[in-house]
Specification:
The structure holds three protein chains of three kinds. Chain A is of the alpha/beta class. Chain A is built from 16 helices and eight strands. Chain A is about 45% helix and about 10% strand. The longest helix of chain A is centred in the N-terminal third of the chain and has 29 residues. By secondary structure, chain B is mainly alpha-helical. Chain B has one domain. In chain B, about 60% of the residues lie in helices and about 5% in strands. Chain B contains ten helices and three strands. Chain C is an alpha+beta fold. Chain C folds into two domains: about 230 residues, no CATH class; about 100 residues, Beta Barrel (Elongation Factor Tu (Ef-tu), domain 3), CATH 2.40.30. Chain C is built from 13 helices and 14 strands. In chain C, the strands form five sheets. Chain C has a six-stranded antiparallel β-sheet. The longest helix of chain C is centred in the middle third of the chain and has 33 residues. Classes of the chains: A alpha/beta, B mainly alpha, C alpha+beta. The interface between A and C is large, with 42 and 43 residues. The complex binds iron/sulfur cluster (SF4). The site of iron/sulfur cluster has 12 residues of chain A, from α3 and α13.
Chain lengths: ~375, ~260, ~450
């Protein structure tokens, strides 16, 4: 990224530190790849959550402490007694040899838990893994990934090193696999998150082939606490993720088209509240085009704002509606085309014909 | 219920709703303040309830299973570690204690125990027959996260190389199995504890019901044979370094990385 | 409860808006309490199921109950939860480790039955209310948002003085409209539920503190569920205000028959449903579901002109005017006999997407087969020539009124009740060995019964 662009991004963010990403937020980058607003906000490291709140549309992403407790307890359990349960599972799933039981704790370095230290040590241990052959299990390594010019620290639950020279990302999740089936949405989210780790690990090792594109997902089985391990192919997620990350680093063009003075500065005044008014920030947001879809509600902090902005648009009704009505932006337009009061442009011809027949047929029935 | 208590309760309900509202709106500071106020009222309410109960009957406070431990905490931990014969995590120590002894170990007290031991050693070195100390990592000779050991063990047993967690797991399984074999009818808790080991050792037992301590020990021994030599040489080398490089205190409580990356934390 | 596979926290259930039963678990991680919950739920559900078996009629060779159970849940996730609750209770045993009362596994079988039955198109055995509403109303929001019961009902039936969209937005505030389950709102979990559970757990049995903790839990949980309870009944009212379709009775009879069959099975055999279907059972089930789907789509289109309108928009049906009739046309059939095959031409303005050779039917004359033999597209209409067969009486010449006449308005659709024909699978007992032989009924294993439910 050139200096100009970095400078522009800094200005967009204003006098506050860049928002730290984590695996979940990096995974969320793949949510709505077509949205310029999000790409710009993310590349600039703007705190979207705070921004959304300040303009009056706070996001609703709460997590229940029951879920958090359960997640931590399950991870502690499968890792207890020198990874006893994990060793058994991975011997089956990854065909580990009996002598592959070495473990390296990377959650702290001699009592020091600073991210820099942990990352340096993780790098040392992971790059040396093949040579020294000491360890198979790397507990909580700290990886990094460049997200639009900012370094993001990422911490997978576990990385396993197989004697054939391949690393596997192991993700421990507390949602249940019941009769060999699990909640599709949760599996997909876990796969995307794991893909972030795979990518980070590949970059760290500088060798794509060294990291398997199959990750191991460890979940409780049925209604018990007994863990089961399943391999999940994350190739698709990797492609999407890489595409989106390279898009962020090629942000020049998007940023270049924005007004030079534009900023989303959330710097706080003496009262702890951002000094810039909600109206100013709302106006700033309007300068960057969004691409709202109902999916955003589950994925992006700006969703309630963007939904409000998009009200009256066909996009708010869902992706299929938007596609079926290709070229017809608003509900008002759709109605106009349906009753013939609007004239369709060339790109709307197909949708307009469909709208007209629908109106005629339904009209004849309800009349 | 008296009306002040009712009023208090109504106020508590209102505050709860207000906290949720603040949380939902992402106003963290406000939520924190409201929560503080909420806790204060809840305490007041608790007192009111106690008073009320005093007039009717005494509230029964939850009591620990056993009125008081028969042994001081450090000795209970020492017992468990001696039985296991290798460094162990607090959870395992508690599980061992509960399987063979009465009384409860409160996890939080284990944390302070470790600090107390170090303090005691610093003020009057070597004045106790043993100290409970952290195991040390083989490479940095720093305290290993969450593993307790006994100071009288040979250094090589107190350092932890990459293979050591598994090796110690197998050693503990063997010793636990031996202990179960020796004592007359072991408790369900004790058998369940051994099963937690057996379930994860190849060929140790087909099921919890069909498990025999002897077979568990044999299976653990068989896997141990694979790891023993490389683990030993690794640990011996680290132990040698520890004896050469560390002072008395550090040999027990580990060396801390100081000043290296203090900027980051 | 959040984070736990199917750990029930609370339920509000009943068949009378004024008298719901509230069941709750003060400590959801406690296994015994979970089974107690299941046992109490079983009482309510089994009583209700029993009440549906009081009267019966004879249909063909079968005795069929006049009523069948119907379970209404707020949303799809709620239906999935019912299925899981059925799964986690149907294998439990009354003896051995963790014994439970017989009604617990029986509840499991019924919940599983209802969940499976609800997959059959047209069945009303278990309905997710949001979906039942979406079938009859289109809101101005996306399908994702329609999954919120309070929101979709806000569009359909907003409170006085509020517009639909406003009501829907208000419905998104969990403080005003608690989620309709199965998950509770995270801020409720963190700020209300967790302290209440802690207060319960930290108090001595039978102490005033514990009594109070129980009261608090009950009050808070009731507060979370009552709004949804009221919404459910309002939704029922809204749906009941619609005129029932002509074929509803027919579909409900199918539900009643199946209910009677399963009731009978439970009395005679009673083994729980398998964890997974075998290949043969699965293939059969799939075929049945496909057939039922076609039937359902077709009958719904016959019931409801708006559903038919949709088929017309997509080109699978068309409406038009008969412009010419060749009433007495006869052709030589396969067996060399002369047979009556009238031709009619229908002119339609609909965007007809059917091809020559397509079999269609007119809802008004379902007994008469019609095949498209020619399509001529004109500037603003389409001329469709159809050959008719059957439904014209026994004589050589068609009986009066059995063939459409010129200027008649008529609809033809490719979706009609017996449009789905596949080779019948052999009866299950005759499954060839290449397909694994006749499937063995599922025999639950020791493991099934002992499965820990932690
Ligand atoms: S919510 Fe807005 S900013 Fe976020 S992805 Fe959707 S459209 Fe883009």
């Amino acid at each position: 990224m050139d200096n100009d662009t970095s400078e522009r991004l800094r200005r967009l963010r204003g006098a506050v530190p860049a928002k730290r990403h984590n695996a979940r937020t990096v995974a969320a980058l793949t949510g709505n790849p077509g949205c310029a607003r999000r790409a710009v906000l993310d590349a600039a490291g703007v705190d979207k959550e705070q921004l959304a709140r300040h303009v009056g549309f706070p996001a609703k992403f709460g997590q229940s402490q029951f879920a958090i407790t359960r997640g931590n307890a399950f991870e502690a359990q499968v890792k207890a007694n020198a990874f006893a349960e994990l060793i058994r599972l991975l011997r089956e799933t990854l065909e580990l040899e009996l002598n592959e039981v070495g473990q390296t704790d990377l959650e702290e370095v001699g009592g020091n838990t600073s991210q820099e230290m942990r990352h340096i040590r993780s790098r040392q241990k992971l790059t040396g893994a093949a040579a020294d052959g000491e360890s198979t299990f790397f507990d909580h390594p700290l990886l990094t990934l460049d997200v639009g010019g900012n370094t993001v620290y990422l911490e997978p639950d576990l990385v396993a090193f197989h004697h054939n020279g391949k690393f596997h990302v192991v993700e421990i999740k507390s949602f249940a696999v019941i009769d060999d089936q699990a909640d599709g949405g949760k599996v997909a989210a876990a796969a995307t998150q794991s893909a972030v780790y795979v990518l980070a690990l590949r970059r760290l090792l500088g060798d794509d082939d060294a990291v398997s594109d199959e990750v191991v997902l460890v979940c409780p089985k049925d209604f018990s606490n007994q863990p089961v391990a399943t391999k999940v192919d994350v190739r698709k997620q990797l492609i999407v993720l890489q595409h989106q990350l390279s898009r962020l680093s090629r942000i020049e063009k998007l940023v270049g088209e924005l007004p030079p003075a534009l900023t989303f500065d959330l710097a706080a005044g003496d009262d702890g509240k951002p000094t810039r008014s909600a109206a100013a920030l709302t106006a700033a947001l309007a300068e960057v085009e969004a691409r709202y879809a109902p999916d955003c509600l589950a994925k992006c902090e700006m969703a309630f704002f963007c939904r409000k902005e998009a009200s009256g648009c066909t996009a708010t009704l869902g992706i299929n509606v938007r596609e079926e009505l290709g070229g017809v932006e608003t509900v008002a337009e759709a109605l106009g085309l349906a009753d013939g009061s609007l004239i369709a442009s060339d790109s709307q011809a197909e949708a307009a014909a469909m709208l007209r027949t629908t109106a005629e047929i339904y009209g004849s029935v309800t009349a | 219920m008296t009306s002040p208590a009712e009023a208090l309760e109504r106020r508590i309900d209102e505050l709860r709703a207000a906290v949720r509202k603040a949380v939902t709106a992402g106003e963290r500071d406000r939520a924190r303040e409201l929560r503080k106020e909420l806790r204060r009222l809840e305490d007041a309410w608790d007192e009111a309830l106690d008073e009320l109960a005093d007039q009717t009957e005494r509230p029964v406070k939850p009591v620990p299973r056993q009125a008081g431990p028969l042994l001081p905490l450090r000795e209970q931990v020492h017992q468990a570690l001696t039985l296991l014969g290798a460094p162990a995590a607090p959870r395992l120590i508690i599980a061992v204690h509960e399987a063979f002894h009465v009384g409860e170990i409160i996890p939080a007290r284990l944390t302070s125990l470790r600090r107390d031991e170090e303090r005691s050693f610093r003020t009057a070195p070597h004045s106790r027959p043993y100290y409970l100390c952290p195991a040390l990592t083989a490479d940095l000779l720093a305290p290993a996260r969450g593993l307790l050991a006994v100071s009288t063990w040979p250094m090589a047993n107190r350092v932890i190389g990459p293979l050591s967690p598994r090796v110690d797991f197998l050693i503990s399984a063997i010793r636990l199995a031996g202990h179960l074999d020796r004592i007359p009818d072991p408790s369900t808790d004790a058998r369940r504890l051994l099963w937690r080991f057996a379930a994860n050792i190849p060929g140790a037992a087909p099921s919890a019901a069909a498990m025999t301590p002897a077979a568990v020990a044999d299976a653990a021994e068989a896997e141990l044979d694979i790891h023993r030599d490389s683990d030993r040489s690794h640990r011996e080398a680290a132990a040698k370094r520890a004896r050469e490089q560390l002072d008395d205190i550090e040999q027990l409580f580990g060396s801390r990385l100081r000043g290296v990356a203090s900027t980051g934390s | 409860m959040a984070g736990e596979a199917n750990a029930p926290l609370a339920a509000m259930i009943g068949s009378d808006v004024a008298h719901p039963t509230l069941l709750f678990v003060p400590q959801p991680r406690n296994r015994d309490m979970r089974f107690e919950f299941a046992a109490s739920l079983a009482e309510v559900v089994l009583d209700y199921v029993r009440s549906r078996t009081q009267r019966s009629e004879v249909l063909g060779n079968d005795v069929v109950f006049l009523e069948a159970p119907q379970l209404l849940v707020p949303n799809r996730a709620g239906a999935a939860f019912v299925r899981l609750l059925g799964r986690s209770t149907r294998f439990r045993r009354t003896t051995g480790l963790y014994p439970v009362p017989q009604r617990v596994p029986t509840l499991g079988r019924w919940l599983t039955y209802l969940a499976e039955r609800s997959e059959h198109p047209g069945s009303a055995a278990m309905l997710a209310m949001t979906e039942a509403l979406s079938m009859h109303w289109a809101s101005g929001q996306s399908a994702l948002e329609d999954a919120n019961l309070a929101a979709i009902l806000g569009w359909i039936d907003p409170p006085d003085g509020v517009t639909g969209p406003e009501a829907a937005i208000a419905a998104e505030d969990p403080l005003v409209w608690p989620p309709a389950g199965p998950s509770t709102d995270p801020s409720f979990d963190n700020e209300v539920l967790a302290p209440a559970i802690r207060a319960y757990a930290d108090s001595a049995p039978d102490s005033p503190r514990r009594m109070h903790a129980l009261q608090t839990l009950e009050r808070e949980l009731r507060g979370q569920m009552e709004p949804t309870w009221r919404l459910m009944w309002r939704a029922v009212d809204v749906l009941r205000a619609l005129p029932p379709g002509d074929t509803v009775e027919q579909r409900w009879t199918a539900d009643r028959k199946d209910f009677s069959r399963y009731h009978n099975y439970l009395v005679m055999d009673g083994r729980p449903q398998a964890r997974r279907d075998g290949a043969v059972v699965a293939a059969r089930r799939l075929q049945t579901l496909e057939r039922e789907q076609t039937l359902y789509d077709a009958t719904r289109a016959l019931d409801d002109p708006l559903v038919m309108a949709n088929f017309r928009v997509t080109g699978e049906a068309f409406e038009g005017t008969v412009v010419s009739v060749e009433r007495d046309r006869r052709v030589t059939g396969e067996k060399g006999r002369r047979i009556t095959r009238p031709l009619i031409v229908v002119s339609t303005g609909d965007p007809m997407h059917l091809a020559v050779g397509a079999a269609v039917r007119s809802p008004a004359r379902l007994g008469q087969e019609a095949t498209i033999v020619e399509i001529r597209r004109l500037a603003d209409s389409t001329l469709v020539t159809l050959e008719l067969a059957g439904g014209m009486g026994r004589r050589a010449a068609p009986a009066p009124g059995t063939v459409p006449e010129e200027k008649d308005d008529i609809t033809y659709t490719s979706a009609f009740p017996d449009a789905f024909r596949t080779p019948d699978l052999p009866p299950t007992e005759l499954t060839p060995w290449t397909h694994g032989g006749p499937p063995q009924p599922y025999v639950p294993t020791e493991d099934d019964a002992r499965e820990v439910w932690e």
